[in-house]
Structure formats: C-alpha cells, structure tokens
Specification:
The protein is of the alpha/beta class. It contains 10 helices and 6 strands, in the order αβαβαβαβαβαβαααα. β2, α3 and β3 form a beta-alpha-beta unit.
C-alpha cells in the first residue's frame, strides 16, 4: 500500500463523534508562532473544559512536527499544571485519524511543522503540497480539519505566506479559517501604526480574524524553557494580559465552530 493510499484509507476510516472538532494551526512561513498558539489555545480551552472522573481531558494538543517541538514543551510542564492531554505523531499517518474516534475527546488542536513542503511547480488550482512524509502528514490533518488558525505577524515577511496558505491550501479544501495577528509589540508600536497596517491587509481580503492581536511579551519567550503554559504563568499584570490574548483566540475559535 502506498503512502497516499494509506492516508486515504486512514481518513476514510475516521468516524468521529458529532461533538469532536479538529483545529489546525497552519502557516507556510516558519517563525510565526504556530506552536505557541497551539499550546496556549489548548491550555485556555482545556482550562474551560470539564475533565472526566479519571482525569482524561476533552482537549488534546497534537504535534505533527518530526522534531517533536510540542512534545518537548509539554513534557517540561508539571503534569498537574497541564490542562490538556497531548500526542505527538512525528509525521506518522493514521494516528490522528484513529484518535478522533474517541468520544471523550471534543477538541484536537494540531500544531504543524515549521515549514510547509510545497511543490514550486504546482499550477494554480492544483494541490501545492509536495510529495514527502511531511506533506502526507499535513494532508491527513487537513482532511480532518474543521477549522484552521493562520498566524500572521505585524512584520510583512509573513503576509504573502499567510495568503498562500489561505488561497492555495485552505480555500480549495473548503476549510474555514481564522487569522490571528501574533507577536504585536505594544512597546515598539506605540501608535499601533504597524498593527493597523496588518489589520487593514487582512480586512481588505475579507479574511475573518480575531479582533485583537496576541501581544509580544518576554514571558512568552521564556515559557518553553520554564515549562509553562499561559494559564500557569506567575500572577502579574502581564500574565493576565497574556492569558486574555489567548482566551480571546479560544473563544473566537469556539464561536466559529
């Protein structure tokens, strides 16, 4: 059985409960904060969800990156401080298709690799994903996806890649999407000039977006090494602001689902 045939068989076999939803965090450009958004949105969703008597969370963060970035972060967090369960596929096809059949799981928030394997010669209208295990793993996620979160930063370096992701990957598959402006530095952009530029760029294309950005705080930059998620930051004004940012993403996500 070829990889593509195995992928198709795995997805076809996935019969999910009616309340289960799969959310994929995806952007062609690396460095846009996909893992941070996946983990902290899962933390906010998991904190709001009701856990079963045996401690199983209805929210699962899933990592498809072969480098296991999500696993490394989550494994560093104290078990009692992690308000969601997590799984890492490392690019293996079939794992997610099986997991979504579990009726105790309501939300799968999936982090994708730091780069998107695309075929530079793909014509408009054709699937631009390449032929590799990374591309096949992403295809499986997209086949299962009910919603995509597309991070974009105030820096223009991520804008074209966000548009490519939406126009070439998501829209042809009829996957609803939500743009999230990430890494806005309120200290450097005091007049919100750059923030207003990226908001205007998103709105001109009629892309749905979270109303306000995820602000860039030093506390986020050290979360990985400190083994922390946004719901467990040490209490401060900055921590409350940071939690508010990701809670807004989680709430908007739920409204779209």
């Amino acid at each position: 059985m070829t990889t593509s045939t195995a992928l198709r068989a795995a997805v076809d076999a996935a019969v999910r409960p009616p309340t289960t939803r799969v959310i994929v965090v995806i952007q062609q450009k690396g460095g846009s904060g996909k893992t941070t958004i996946a983990i902290n949105t899962a933390a906010c969703s998991g904190r709001s969800a009701v856990q079963s008597d045996d401690g199983v969370s209805s929210v699962v963060a899933a990592g498809t990156d072969v480098q296991g970035s999500l696993e490394k972060w989550c494994s560093a967090v104290r078990e009692d401080a992690l308000p969601f369960d997590y799984v890492v596929t490392r690019g293996r096809v079939g794992i997610l298709s099986e997991l979504v059949q579990d009726p105790s799981r309501r939300r799968f928030i999936v982090d994708t690799p730091g780069f998107m394997d695309v075929d530079p010669d793909a014509e408009w209208g054709e699937d631009p994903l390449g032929q590799s295990p990374v591309a096949d793993a992403l295809r499986e996620v997209l086949e299962l996806a009910d919603l995509a979160i597309v991070p974009i930063t105030p820096s223009k370096i991520t804008w074209d890649e966000a548009e490519f992701t939406i126009e070439r990957v998501l829209k042809p598959r009829s996957i609803p999407f939500l743009v999230v402006i990430n890494m806005h530095d309120p200290g450097k952009d005091k007049g919100e000039t750059q923030l207003n530029k990226v908001k205007a760029w998103v709105d001109e294309r009629n892309y749905p977006r979270v109303s306000d950005p995820i602000r860039r705080y030093t506390i986020h930059e050290h979360a990985y090494e400190n083994g922390a998620v946004v719901t467990e930051y040490k209490m401060s004004g900055t921590a409350l602001n940071a939690r508010e940012d990701f809670m807004r993403v989680a709430l908007t996500m739920e409204q779209m689902l």
